[in-house]
Design brief:
With 210 residues, the chain is α/β, with parallel strands linked by helices. The protein is built from 7 helices and 10 strands.
């Protein structure tokens, strides 16, 4: 059976955007808990978004080198199903919250050998999110990276970094990732998603899978 590429739309800040994404068949939404991000959400804001989501849309919380207390507070008040760590968090940190987790890895100065080594270190990660930023830095740059630099890995690959309506089909065709992660590529403004862009993006994913 041919694989269907999963889709996560990250940087959701409004319930209406989350509901529109869900109606289009998005598999997951990402909520950013990082003060320096223009897509940062407060705990109450995130909880309100999640309360309105229909069943079978996975909620993902993104952190970057956060204090453990913040992650615990979010998990106490927001129904988060998967954690996504974007910083220099080691495997022991990622595993201490009793939630499935994704580890994001910045590809800008990471070679294939380094990526393979890291994939083995994060052996309990449910997937590796490959983004275009420097290792340990924040994502959301809107830039792509050299997809030829992705080796065969022992984990599901979640492709991120500069994905848009114009390049996502090519990305899927070349990389064949388990999932793709998009944020700025479907935005009208930072943190505000465009219904038209989300719809066109999902159509391109469907076309690529077909």
């Amino acid at each position: 059976m041919k694989q269907r590429t999963r889709v996560k739309i990250c940087g959701i800040t409004r319930a209406e955007d989350a509901l529109a994404a869900a109606a289009m068949g998005v598999d997951a939404i990402g909520l950013v808990f990082y003060d320096n991000s223009p897509r940062n959400v407060e705990i109450e804001q995130a909880a309100a978004i999640c309360r309105q989501l229909p069943a079978f849309v996975t909620t993902v919380a993104l952190f970057l080198d956060a204090e453990q207390s913040l992650v615990n507070e979010v998990l106490t008040h927001v129904p988060i199903e998967v954690l996504q760590f974007h910083g220099a968090e080691d495997p022991a940190y990622c595993e201490r919250f009793a939630r499935p987790y994704i580890k994001a890895l910045g590809m800008r100065s990471l070679n294939q050998e380094g990526l393979i080594s890291l994939s083995k270190s994060y052996k309990n990660a449910r997937g590796l999110l490959l983004d275009s930023h420097e290792p340990g830095a924040a994502g959301g740059t809107g830039e792509t990276f050299d997809w030829n630099n992705i080796p065969v890995l022992n984990k599901p690959v979640i492709l991120a970094g500069g994905l848009t309506v114009s390049n996502v089909a090519e990305a899927i065709s070349r990389v064949r990732p388990w999932a793709i992660d998009v944020s700025s590529g479907v935005e009208a403004n930072k943190g505000i998603k465009s219904v038209d862009l989300m719809s066109a993006f999902m159509q391109e994913v469907e076309n690529a899978d077909r």
